[in-house]
Structures are given as structure tokens and as C-alpha cells.
Write a structure and sequence with these properties.
Protein name: RNA methyltransferase, TrmA family
Shape: globular
Keywords: Methyltransferase, S-adenosyl-L-methionine, Transferase
CATH class of the largest domain: Alpha Beta
Helix content: 25-40%
Largest sheet: 8 strands, mixed
Distance between the termini: 56 Å
GO biological process, one term: rRNA base methylation
Structural class: alpha/beta
Number of domains: 3
Number of strands: 23
CATH architecture of the largest domain: 3-Layer(aba) Sandwich
Radius of gyration: 23 Å
Strand content: 25-35%
Pfam family, one: tRNA_U5-meth_tr
Low-confidence stretches: none
GO molecular function: rRNA (uridine-C5-)-methyltransferase activity
CATH topology of the largest domain: Rossmann fold
Strand order of the largest sheet: 7-22-23-21-20-17-18-19
Number of helices: 9
């Protein structure tokens, strides 16, 4: 019977959803942090459960040629990255296989993932940074599978300006005696440092546990402006809830404006603090071009874009479609989408606030049926009701953009059972060095 802290010799069989190696011991699955498929490792068992075991590589017996020395001093203590010990080419193939495996095991379809579109740049690509703050003060990232904050002075996934702003905030906290938020007691002031970047500017938002004015607000703004010459605005988000949600409902501006303008696929988008916007601009363009190719537009089609957010995919497709209707349940995002259409002079895109059912009713009242439906849902995927609504609208094609292979596979199965045959799948590495991967799947309505 295996016990905690035992050292056992295992062969890593494949990679799991979180990038860990997977093996088996006495009939139990073992998740091995730092393991690479094909390696033989001595593994220290950290937790022994009834159905699964968690461990880490203690020593390599037969290492993989894909293994490299990690280039980050905080890896693997910081939970932000999962693949810094692996060559990028091997990381890409691991992700491609993971999507293909999920489609087969969960989706019940033998659909090859024909390729994975890797990133030209795997460093400093993120345009959104969320840095939790903890007593110390510490500003960094959560340790893997915990809320323990690792003090990270510089992250290789973030722009260097993020590190300069972090240092300015840390100095302000020390000078003005600003207490860090303490999760267990729900006390302290500063919870997160939240940053957004366009191609030329940065927006800084401090998430706090009080609606009162901050200590030394003018000094803070001056320090931030000195740290980041491209600073467009400084804002405060008030979040007094006991929650893992980062941003609060109340937002106030300290200086400048609480939004950025950015260009994507040749279009200009206004991004507010809470707006959803892909964190890797270059790979987002690759992703949207793939979705556009799968849509097969000729200039005459009616496209319905569900989960349209601020209208990024909608407006990209509007340039090739007859008309696009975007549906989104977040009212502020719908407002931003309409403004983004006007900003780009696009007149064949409409946006409505509602879910798939609302969109179906809207189209039915006008006697319209979409030729193509594009969906880009959050990680939880589509509900059964949304899948049913899509089938009822009977588009010729469904383009599914997914950030989670497991929920993608589940929904592909549902749509397949409703008469939509999965035709093509391509993965896109939106988040290099992490376990996350995006996928675009084309589903075609079956005859009869």
C-alpha cells in the first residue's frame, strides 16, 4: 500500500489536463508534477487518495530528450507555467495529442487534430496581468493548487513594464503603510494589481477591499506614471466580497481613462477594465483567422456569433459575411461591441443582449435562420439548452472555438447527436509554456 513520501519508480505514460505527467501504481492513477511522457522517474508521493495519487519527480532514471533546464527562477514554485522544463516543439505535440485524445475519449469521435499552430514568440506575450497581493507584502502569483502567493519580481510571460509597475506599487505600500489583503481574515486593503496592455499603452487597476480613498493617491499616480511612460490610466476596483473573483462591481478612475484602444486583425477595439479580450494578441489573430476559414464565408451568409463579448470575432467575420448578429449576456460587453462596430465603420453587424435562446427568438421573429453559428464559450462550455437551440436553428455549419478540450469534446458529442458531423479540428497555442490550449472545430449539418 503506497504511503505519503514513499519514493517509487514509475514510467510517465502521457500528460494530463494540467500538464502533469500521468502514470499508474497498483491500479491507481498517479499525477506526477514535472514528468514528461516516456521518462522513467523516481517519484516522491505527496498525497495518496482513494482513487488517485499525486507526486513529483524526485530523480530522473531515464530522462526524455524533450527535457530542458527551466529558464525561470520561480519555476515550478509559481503555478503560472507548466512546461518550462520541456522543449517547445514537444509542448506543442503534447497539447495537440491532448485535444485529439479528449475528442476520442469524451467526444466519441475519431477526429484528427490536423495541426497545432504554435507561437512565434513564447516570451512576454500576455496583455493582461493579474497579480495577487499577500502580507509581507508579496506581489506575484499563486503557488500551484493553492492561494499561497509566490513573490515574483519578474515574469517571463508578462511585459517588462508589468515588473516596473509592480515595484512602484510595492514601494508605495511600504512608504504609506498600505496593508495587503489577508484572505483568511478578510482584512487588509490591496487585493490584486490588475494590468492591461495595448500595443502602445498600459492601464493599471488596483483591486481593494475598501471604498475609502487610498492612502497617498497622488503619490501613487506619480510613481506609476514614472514607472510606465505609456500609462493611459489608473483606476481602483472595489471588491469587498469573500470571493475568488478578482474585480469588484465598483470602479473609479484616479487618473487618465479606464480603457485602452488596441488593434486586432486590422480592426480597432476599445477594451475596458472588465472586458474579455484574448491575452495573446498575435495568437488571437491566428485563432480568428482559423475560425474565419472554417466558417467558409462568401459574402452572403447570415452569421450568429454566440458569446461575442466586445465583438472581436463578430467584426472579423462581418468583413466576409452578408450580416453578423452577435449575442452576449453581459450588458457592458454588448455596449462595447456596438461601439466597436461604429468605430470600425462596420454596418452589417448587430448585437443583442441575451443567450442562445434569446438569439433564436430574435431571428425567428424576423423570419431568419443563420447559415453559420460561431461559439466561443467560457471554459465550462455550452449548456445542453444552448446545444439544443443551435440544433433548432439548423445552420449549415457550426464553428466552435474552445479553451477547454474536455468541455469541447462533451459538446461535440452533443452536437453530433443532434445531427452535426465534426469535420475538422485545429489547435492553436494561445498560452505558450502553460497547459492551456485553444481549439477550433468545424461541424457540418448532416443531410436529412
Amino acid at each position: 500500500m503506497p504511503k505519503k513520501n514513499d519514493i517509487v519508480r514509475l514510467t510517465i505514460e502521457r500528460c494530463g489536463l494540467a500538464g502533469e505527467g500521468i502514470s499508474h501504481l497498483d491500479g491507481q492513477v498517479v499525477f506526477v508534477s514535472g514528468g514528461i511522457p516516456g521518462e522513467v522517474c523516481d517519484v516522491q508521493l505527496l498525497k495518496v487518495g482513494k482513487t488517485a495519487i499525486w507526486g513529483r519527480v524526485h530523480a530522473l532514471v531515464d530522462g526524455s530528450p524533450a527535457r530542458v533546464a527551466a529558464d525561470c527562477p520561480y519555476y515550478p514554485k509559481c503555478g503560472g507555467c507548466q512546461f518550462r522544463h520541456m522543449r517547445y516543439s514537444a509542448e506543442l505535440e503534447t497539447k495537440r495529442r491532448r485535444v485529439e485524445d479528449a475528442l476520442r475519449r469524451i467526444g466519441g469521435v475519431d477526429l484528427p487534430v490536423s495541426e497545432i499552430l504554435g507561437a512565434e514568440n513564447t516570451l512576454r506575450y500576455r496583455n493582461k496581468v493579474q497579480l495577487p497581493v499577500a502580507p509581507g507584502p508579496r506581489i506575484g502569483f499563486f503557488r500551484a493548487r493553492s492561494h499561497d502567493v509566490v513573490n515574483v519580481e519578474d515574469c517571463l510571460l508578462q511585459p517588462e513594464t508589468a515588473s516596473a509597475l509592480r515595484r512602484a506599487v510595492l514601494a508605495w505600500m511600504l512608504e504609506w503603510g498600505v496593508p495587503a489583503y489577508e484572505e483568511e481574515t478578510h482584512t487588509g486593503l490591496l487585493r490584486h494589481l490588475y494590468l492591461r496592455f495595448s500595443r502602445t499603452q498600459v492601464l493599471c487597476c488596483l483591486v481593494v477591499n475598501s471604498a475609502k480613498p487610498l492612502p497617498g493617491e497622488e503619490a501613487l499616480v506619480s510613481a506609476l506614471r514614472a514607472a510606465a511612460p505609456g500609462l493611459a490610466g489608473v483606476a481602483v476596483s472595489v471588491n469587498q466580497e469573500r470571493t475568488n473573483v478578482v474585480l469588484g462591481r465598483e470602479l473609479r478612475s484616479l487618473w487618465g481613462h479606464p480603457w485602452l484602444d488596441d488593434t486586432l486583425c486590422g480592426l480597432t477595439f476599445r477594451i475596458s477594465v472588465p472586458s474579455f479580450y484574448q491575452v495573446n494578441r498575435d495568437q488571437a489573430e491566428v485563432l480568428y483567422e482559423q475560425a474565419l476559414a472554417f466558417a467558409g464565408l462568401t459574402g452572403h451568409e447570415l452569421v450568429l456569433d454566440l458569446y461575442c463579448g466586445i465583438g472581436t470575432i463578430s467584426l472579423v467575420m462581418a468583413r466576409r459575411a452578408g450580416k453578423v448578429i452577435g449575442a452576449e449576456i453581459v450588458p457592458s460587453a454588448v455596449t462595447d461591441a456596438k461601439a466597436n462596430a461604429a468605430r470600425n465603420g462596420i454596418t452589417n453587424a448587430d448585437f443583442l443582449c441575451g443567450d442562445a435562446g434569446t438569439a433564436a427568438q430574435h431571428l425567428a421573429m424576423q423570419g431568419l435562420r443563420p447559415d453559420v453559428i460561431c461559439v466561443d464559450p467560457p471554459r465550462k462550455g455550452l449548456s445542453a439548452e444552448v446545444c439544443d437551440a443551435i440544433a433548432d436553428m439548423a445552420p449549415a455549419r457550426v464553428v466552435y472555438v474552445s479553451c477547454d478540450p474536455a468541455t469541447l469534446a462533451r459538446d461535440v458529442r452533443r452536437l453530433h447527436e443532434s445531427g452535426y458531423r465534426p469535420e475538422k479540428a485545429v489547435a492553436v497555442d494561445m498560452f505558450p509554456r502553460t497547459a492551456h490550449v485553444e481549439t477550433v472545430v468545424l461541424l457540418q449539418r448532416e443531410a436529412g
